[in-house]
Design brief:
This protein has 155 residues and is α+β, with helices and mostly antiparallel strands. Strands 3-2-1-7 form a four-stranded antiparallel beta sheet. A three-stranded antiparallel beta sheet has the order 4-5-6. The protein is built from three helices and seven strands. It has a domain of 44 residues. The protein is globular.
Length: 155
């Protein structure tokens, strides 16, 4: 989808009295190519839901819940599409944080650190380098800034 151009966000501490950070966030994103996206995150919903990523477009859609591929469908299919559906559709969901933020696994962070160590040891680039990682950090900071200042943030 490309680079995020602008963010408008709201955050709140809605369902937990025992944590010091927000438990709910919603952000509307506008991409440079004109696409519009939404990020919703909450550990305050009942009964709680698995982490889901949905990319829905005019020419196709992808839906992933936890690690399981639910939808991979495009107007113009390629030979690789069926292989991708077969490989990733049978993976079971881990449970994530659902409605308990203390249950969120740190396995993703561990995998990333191990990849960085391996890259340093072997002299190659990590799967996610610092330049690419910075984009995610900038987006998160823009979301916080928009929510805090109650205005659109342009990146």
């Amino acid at each position: 989808m490309g680079k995020v151009e602008a963010v408008c966000a709201f955050t709140g501490l809605i369902g937990h009295s025992d944590i010091e950070v927000e438990d709910t966030a919603v952000a509307a994103l506008r991409f440079e190519n004109g696409a519009i996206g939404v990020i919703e995150a909450s550990t305050a919903v009942n009964p709680g839901f698995y982490r889901k990523i949905e990319i829905l477009g005019t020419r196709g859609s992808v839906v992933v819940e936890e690690e399981k591929l639910l939808t991979w469908k495009f107007d113009e299919e390629t030979a690789a599409d069926e292989k991708i559906r077969e490989k990733f559709s049978g993976i079971n969901a881990s449970g994530g944080g659902v409605s308990d933020p203390k249950a969120i696994s740190d396995i993703g962070h561990l995998r990333q650190l191990l990849d960085i160590i391996k890259a340093v040891d072997n002299g190659h680039k990590p799967a996610i380098d610092a330049i690419e990682a910075r984009k995610a950090v900038e987006l998160v900071l823009a979301i916080y800034s928009s929510a805090r200042n109650k205005r659109i943030v342009y990146l």
